[in-house]
Amino acid sequence: MTKPNRRDMFKLGAAAGATMIAASARAASPAPTAPPADNSWSNSLGAPVDARPYGQPSKYESSVVRRYIPWLSPTRLADASFTPLQDQPGIITSNGLFFERYHSGVPTVDPKEFRLMVSGRVKKPLLLTLDQIMRYPSVSRIHFIECPANGATEWPAAQLNSLQLTHGMIGCAEWTGVLLKTILDEAGIHPDSRWVLPTGSDGAHMDRSLPMVKCLDDCILAWGQNGEALRPEQGYPLRLVVPGWQGNVNVKWLRQLQVGREPWITREETSEYSELLGDGKSLGFTWVMDAKSVITFPCPEKPLTQGPGFYEIRGLAWSGRGKVKYVDVSLDGGVNFQRAKLDNPILDKCMTRFTLPYWWDGKPALIQSRVTDDTGYVQPTIVQKHKFWGHDPVYENNSIQTWQILASGEVNNVQLS
Amino acid sequence: MTKPNRRDMFKLGAAAGATMIAASARAASPAPTAPPADNSWSNSLGAPVDARPYGQPSKYESSVVRRYIPWLSPTRLADASFTPLQDQPGIITSNGLFFERYHSGVPTVDPKEFRLMVSGRVKKPLLLTLDQIMRYPSVSRIHFIECPANGATEWPAAQLNSLQLTHGMIGCAEWTGVLLKTILDEAGIHPDSRWVLPTGSDGAHMDRSLPMVKCLDDCILAWGQNGEALRPEQGYPLRLVVPGWQGNVNVKWLRQLQVGREPWITREETSEYSELLGDGKSLGFTWVMDAKSVITFPCPEKPLTQGPGFYEIRGLAWSGRGKVKYVDVSLDGGVNFQRAKLDNPILDKCMTRFTLPYWWDGKPALIQSRVTDDTGYVQPTIVQKHKFWGHDPVYENNSIQTWQILASGEVNNVQLS
User: Domain named Moybdenum cofactor oxidoreductase dimerisation: which ranges (chains A, B) (predicted)?
Assistant: First the structure.
């Protein structure tokens, strides 16, 4: 069969949609040519307006929750949970489904007792209440936050047959707060103050050294997330947002900003969040999350259940270095690629949604997405990643994901060698 | 005092922030120069990762909820609740706080039993399951939805001393779904099919006539809202999103799209959602929500509690006709205006966040915001609105809001004549 060009592909898709809806209607259960068996809600009164002062999802969506991997950590107090990306329709991650990662459990911080100390090599040390911080000039920006261990289980081989568990240590939200630069300007930094150590107020006192140049660029002391106060799991009442950098440097439950001349080389940047290389040396400070993309439909959790015909491939792409420039999708395991459509808005260090019309002929297929960001960086294959990193690292797995579609419509996680 | 230009104003603001933080520190309680009295969360373990598969807000935010006006409706089953805009940090409205309006309560629709019928003057009537609808090419876009009765209580005079209750019948979300045009193309419309009647499956069978030209433009059959399935109060599992138009035409719990030659003139476009004019005639089909803005800080719920000094004025603006072009803020009841800063992204028929540095001298003030959209439309005063509409209409109150700041820092809702 001659490969259709992109315009033809779309027309084919639209026409095929019509045909296949009719075809699948015959096969699907319940039969869509019949009215619903139960529509009692059309003949009765529903719930009153005072039933839910703070709303909740439908009871039919109770399976859409964060999940964790039982064997990943010896304790649920220093563990991670994963966003159900297979159920995320757009670029915004619901606050209730935003992935979690913490080192001593979620603390319950009283905002009235909250203090932020700014200390070290500053001209004027500060001790600020939350109300005071909220008086400064503010910004509101949509950014993703991703754990560098996202995809860690997939380094040696395809291991978990789940989009949620292979890619779900990421979320994207509108963060509102004060630029870190504003508070550092207020304290006054010395010319040789080139590093900042944010510390969390959780039991783990999470801390990471950050270079001043990033702190003065786009970091946010955020109190707001997607229309409300930060969630407890995300650092209520105040967290650091370090756009495009590893999740762990986005310190939560913030209590202190220490300013200094050199990095501190804390436990969290030696035993954790550094990579032991083949020669015995440790590679640290790999802050930036390189460009990555993944197809969210179809995926292991969302197979092609309605038989051959028209579907839409959907996915998410992002880059810690800037904006998504384009996403290419392969239907044959990376031999040929087609340019996907990107939904607006396309924002800096933010998820971007992509789609591609897909006529599935009912045969097995290997589908992939590959993002290119506006620095020209191209998402690598797992083979390319293995060449540099070997097969057994923990972090930085931003490789192209391959989903294998079976003739049954089921979808498997596979790695191509 | 010479009025500072904008650049000076900001410098003044930044400098003032520093000074006033120190000044207010002496006045504020608890004193910010002291460490917190309780920081037990720093010395203990928190909640484990499996405690909240679906997350919830902090217990300290329990007062941030939707509210209703007890005397507005004789029953909670045909009523409205209001978004707490005073606690919305950015442009995204939290799903749990998104305003509600319905006519026979919130139905509990089973997505497996859901059907959408497309009927009337079409070439091929359709009866579609939700799974089938979700196969079509999709889009994801951020739009506001506002009830035309938002501000209704304020027509005759300033009545409710609350941002939430005067402006909270609005929310803004990322909506994901299929363009209505895609489904109408699938059914095939006749050249003289100029109207569509969407009908809800709630007990009220809510329906509104929509002109075909809008249906083929940017309307969405949406199943996704801010990272998850639609909430029940927002029409789970499928609603119509009619960007920039009155909330009531964004029909929820959708069950049918009827195509015809003329509008249906339903109950909801005669007794409701039309405006009785002075000459006894009824004005209907006033679909578009004209440009509107409001200052969300300070406001009656969020007074200036920390004494004179630097604050940031914050607010939200939107237009049903396109994008926000600029927002001007007055500190003297509309005599002089300054241009506010707009946060990105600035999107079509979407909330836009604005800010202005504000040095409060401790004296009474009258603050206002005024939006201009990219069609050149300027938000009117209540006096201008009264000239056309009189003092006693229900809908279309998009007038400039005046907040009166008292010497105490308290903020009141007032109307300037």
Answer: 286-381
Whether the Cβ atoms of residue B56 and residue B65 lie closer than 8 Å to each other: no
Residue A278: its pLDDT value, please? 74
Contacts of A173 (CB under 8 A, 6+ apart): A92, A93, A95, A98, A142, A143, A145, A225, A226, B92
Min Cα distance B226 → chain A (Å) is 5
Q: How does pLDDT run across A56-78, given as a tens digit for each residue? A: 999 999 999 999 999 999 999 99
Q: Is A100 helix (H, G, I), strand (E, B) or coil?
A: strand
Give me B240's structure tokens: 């119509």
> pLDDT, tens digit, for every residue of B296-324?
999 999 999 999 999 999 999 999 999 99
Whole-number Cα distances in Å, B330 to A336, B72, B334, B361: 58, 32, 5, 15
Given a contact cutoff of 8 angstroms between Cβ atoms, the answer to whether B369 and B329 are in contact is yes
Q: Work out the minimum CA distance from B223 to partner chain A, whole angstroms.
A: 8
Domains, in order of start, for chain A? 80-283 (3.90.420.10), 292-414 (2.60.40.650)
As beta bridge partners, residue B332 has: B366
**Percent of chain B at pLDDT exceeding 90:** 83
Q: Searching chain B, which residue's CA lies closest to the CA of residue A183? A: B18
Q: Which residues contact A114 (CB under 8 A, 6 or more apart)?
A: A129, A130, A237, A238, B36
Q: Is the pLDDT of residue A21 over 50?
A: no
pLDDT at residue B22 in the model: 38
Instruction: Give pLDDT tens digits for B141-153.
Output: 999 999 999 999 9
Quote the minimal CA–CA distance from B384 to chain A in Å.
32
> Distance between terminal CA atoms of chain B?
27
Residue B171, amino acid:
G
Measured CA to CA, the distance from residue A27 to residue B345 in angstroms comes to: 44
Question: Chain A residue with minimal CA distance to B185?
Answer: A14
Contact A24 B132 (CB under 8 A): yes
Contacts of B211-219 with CB under 8 Å at 24 or more apart are: B211/B263, B212/B184, B214/B242, B214/B245, B214/B287, B215/B180, B215/B181, B215/B184, B216/B180, B216/B181, B216/B184, B217/B181, B218/B141, B218/B179, B218/B243, B218/B349, B219/B179, B219/B180, B219/B181, B219/B243
Residue with tokens 């619901």: A94
pLDDT the model gives residue B35? 64
Q: pLDDT tens digit string along A80-92? A: 999 999 999 999 9
Q: Are strands A254-260 and A116-120 parallel, antiparallel or unpaired?
A: parallel
pLDDT (mean) for B409-413: 98
CB-facing half-sphere around the CA of A52: CA atoms within 13 A: 20
Q: What is the mean pLDDT of residues B121-148?
A: 97
